[in-house]
Amino acid sequence: SVDCSFSRGVCDWKQDADDDFDWNPADRDRGDGYYMAVPAFVGHKKDMGRLKLLLTDLKPKSSYCLIFSYRLAGERVGKLRVFLANKKTTPVWEQNKGRDERWRTGKIDIFQGAETTNSVTFESERGKGKTGEIGVDNVILISGLCPED
């Protein structure tokens, strides 16, 4: 497995230069490192912020599971989507409201065909809310399909 978490991960993360705002590091409650977040008040409604995970060395014709923690805290905070590079137009995962402020786990299967996925993009879309945040943390890539809960 490959640890792509932000504090101590070995992965290559890039801010998208063509979006409306950047994701920013935010300190974890427990004080051990940080996660990436977009506060609700950043930007205008419908603005986008994209954080891209560059994937190298994924073997063709194999499957991987991307596991991550996410949080959508606050009223009408916006949307969090995940895109794979080879399917740019349609998100493979989307969440638009949190039931509460707790962290949850997202899982995405990545199937490598002859054309390999070379990046995963976390996209935050600004909602109408003025408080709260969208956060992503503990991003891990493992070989094989995602385990059932």
Q: What is the fold's blueprint, element by element?
A:
Elements: E1 2-3, E2 12-15, E3 24-27, E4 34-39, E5 48-54, E6 63-73, E7 78-84, E8 93-95, E9 104-111, E10 119-126, E11 133-143
Antiparallel strand pairs: 1-11, 2-5, 3-4, 4-11, 5-10, 6-9, 6-11, 7-8, 7-10
InterPro entries: ConA-like_dom_sf, MAM_dom, MAM_domain-containing
GO cellular component, one term: membrane
Organism: Lophotis ruficrista
Describe this structure in words.
By secondary structure, the protein is mostly beta strands. The protein has one domain: Sandwich (Jelly Rolls), CATH 2.60.120. 0% of the residues lie in helices and 48% in strands. The protein has no helices and 11 strands. Strands 1, 3, 4, 6, 9 and 11 form a 6-stranded antiparallel sheet that branches. The protein is globular. The two termini are 18 Å apart.
